[in-house]
Design a protein that fits this description.
Helix content is about 35%, strand content about 30%. It is an alpha/beta fold. The chain folds into 3 domains: about 15-75 and about 100-150 and about 255-320, FAD/NAD(P)-binding domain (3-Layer(bba) Sandwich); about 155-250, Alpha-Beta Plaits, CATH 3.30.70; about 320-395, no CATH class.
């Protein structure tokens, strides 16, 4: 198929992707699949391939149309997962999948070839160009900014932060499915849990995760905590492998109109830069997949067409997700840090279909009522004050 908006002789490309993260990576793959004639160029800041990211989601997080093109990317697919809390543990049957940085990078390299340019520090973007710090300039009718979340006082955020290591063990670990939350650990720095992905029979990705008010991450301390956890489970480490760490935003409130006025006018922003992430988990893979489909099926490939559509999409999602931000305020503003785990402990007693709809951002009014039914596991007055506070009031507090 030929591109619908061919580049003029003055343009280097049809589409210019600034940033080589998840959102722009999926856009590159979707454009290559649906419009192989488009000249797509990606400018990535890092000089080497990403080896330090893992993106996961539930099978139910995306519609069937998105699943069909995403599925080949996933490196692991598990039929269920477990959670554990001081009062109970539970296994749920929802499928869970993992995409790694190396897998995504290899797929993007395969479709872009020499048009994937690494080690480019972009200093300025416009609707039709990107300028590097060293003065180099690239031009295209469509420029997409996917360089990640920037500091902004328009959003009030808490954080899900983690440090993880892939560990090869001296013997099989015995886990048949991921453990997404083992909260039967000493609580520290907010809600703390251990996350376990069984990569193979004797290899685990082990992450120490905190839902915290602070984005500060002490990687060394968390790795010590991981080693102690593994020892307590009576697993013996044969080798330490790939490491990763991250600090994901958890949305408490925000002025989304003001946030978008801070973006570069006329330049489509995607991914974290567009506040496209699940408010409670900080995960961005399902939103990134939806954005890639929106862009790849647009009537024209130019910034003037794409930018308003993406902005409207991001604003609509933000408004629709107000209930999640209210729940997040209950967790971070009404619960004592060492007692935050009881909120999740109560949530995981709900039905599996409701839990799936929660993570997939498909809650019904009945679901919302069910989540709020009964006495909250935290002081009632503070819980409902946090839930009912307006986004804008909290953002400017």
């Amino acid at each position: 198929m030929t591109p619908r908006t061919p580049a003029s002789p003055a343009h280097d490309s049809d589409v210019l992707l600034v940033g080589g993260g998840l959102a722009n990576g999926l856009i590159a793959l979707r454009l290559a699949a649906l419009h192989p004639g488009l000249r797509v160029t990606m400018l990535e800041r890092e000089p080497v391939r990403d080896d330090a990211h893992t993106w996961c989601m539930f099978r139910s997080d995306v519609p069937e149309t998105a699943w069909r093109w995403l599925e080949p990317l996933f490196e692991n697919h598990w039929h269920g997962y477990r959670v554990g809390f001081p009062e109970f543990s539970r296994e749920l049957g929802t499928d869970y999948v993992r995409l790694t940085g190396p897998r995504l990078a290899a797929a993007v390299e395969a479709v872009l070839g020499p048009r994937l340019l690494r080690g480019v520090q972009v200093a300025e973007v416009t609707p039709e160009s990107a300028i590097a710090a060293d003065g180099r300039r690239w031009r295209a009718p469509l420029v997409i900014d996917g360089r990640g979340l920037t500091a902004s006082d328009s959003l009030r955020l808490a954080w899900q932060k983690f440090s993880g290591v892939e560990l090869r063990l001296a013997a099989p670990h015995g886990l048949s499915c991921p453990v997404l939350m083992d909260a039967c650990v000493r609580q520290s720095d907010g809600f703390r849990f251990i996350y376990l992905l069984p990569v193979s029979a004797d290899t685990l990705l082990v992450e120490d995760t905190r839902y915290s008010n602070s984005p500060l991450l002490d990687v060394a301390a968390l790795e010590v905590a991981i080693a102690r956890y593994v020892e307590a489970r009576r697993w013996r480490i044969a080798a330490w492998g790939r490491r990763e760490c991250g600090v994901l935003p958890i949305a408490l409130s925000g002025d989304i109109e003001r946030f978008w006025r801070e973006r570069v006018p006329g330049v489509p922003a995607v991914g974290m830069r567009a506040a496209l992430f699940h408010p409670t988990t900080g995960y961005s893979l399902p939103d990134a997949a939806r954005t890639a489909d929106l862009i790849a099926t647009a009537p024209r490939f130019d910034s003037a067409t794409i930018a308003p559509g993406i902005e409207a999409h991001a604003k609509a999602l933000w408004r629709r997700r107000a209930f999640y931000r209210g729940l997040n305020r209950m967790l971070f503003m009404a619960a004592a840090p060492e007692q935050r785990f009881v909120v999740l402990q109560r949530f995981y007693r709900l039905s599996q279909p409701l839990i799936e709809r929660f993570y997939a951002d498909r809650l019904t009014m009945a679901d919302k009522a069910r989540i709020l039914t009964g006495r909250p596991p935290i002081p009632m007055g503070r819980a409902f004050a946090a839930l009912q506070a307006s986004d804008t009031e909290c953002a400017h507090a």
